[in-house]
Each structure stands twice: as C-alpha cells, then as structure tokens.
Amino acid sequence: MRAAQAVGTAGAGTSGSASAAPAAGLPSAAPDNTREQAALDAGARRLVAVHDARSLESLVQDLRQLRDEADRVANEQPSPDALREYRRATRELTEAERAIVLIRGEA
Which DSSP symbol is given to 102? Predict the structure, then answer.
C-alpha cells in the first residue's frame, strides 16, 4: 500500500510540474521560431553556394515530387518513420525555395 501511495505522490508531483511547463514554455516560443528561421536561411545559403538559379529550380521540382511522395506514403501507411521522412522532405523543399528567393535578391 505504501508503494501505491508513493506512486500516487510521485504522479502528483509530476503532473504539477507538467502543468507548469507549458506556461513556462510559452515565452520561449518566439526564440524557437527564430532558430528555425536561422537554420532555414543557413541551409538556403549552402544551396546558393553550390547551385545556380536554373539548377535550384530543377532541385525545387525534384523536392516537390519527393515531398508529395512522402506525403502519400505517410497518409497511406502512417508511422513515425513516414512522418519523419515527410518532415525532412518538407524542410529540404522549404530551404530550396528560400534559396531561390535569396539568389533572385528578393530577400
């Protein structure tokens, strides 16, 4: 019975700290977005360093097909791996699209 009480006490302490975490996490949402944007820009700059505008356009077309295929697979056979593959393809496509914006000087 003491083990059950200890588990209950531990669970209560855990849930109390879990409810405090989202409130504490809200202010840090903006820096996370900033980091994501910085990572996106860094990836785009890497692509600009090795591709010209024409090859970037071709890369974007290829990555769109890859993303669409990953989306189809994730919908037909949902799994953590399929979701991870879809997110990776989406990130790579977004980086390539951002690289096109950079190379055209629209940034």
Answer: H
- What pLDDT is attached to residue 30? 54
For tokens 């900033």, what's the residue?
A: 34
Q: What is the pTM of this model?
A: 0.67
CA dist., res. 47 & res. 33, Å (int): 21
Residue 1 lies in a domain: no
Whether residue 58 is contained in a domain is answered as yes
Q: How far apart are CA 10 and CA 106, in angstroms?
A: 54
Q: Helix, strand, or coil here: 78?
A: coil
Residues in the chain: 107
Whole-angstrom Cα distance, residue 99 to residue 78? 30
Host domain of residue 93: 29-104
Q: How far is CA 98 from CA 7, 57, 68, 76, in A?
A: 50, 11, 18, 29
Q: Does 79 fall in a domain?
A: yes
pLDDT tens per residue, range 19-56: 444 555 555 555 568 988 999 999 999 999 999 999 99
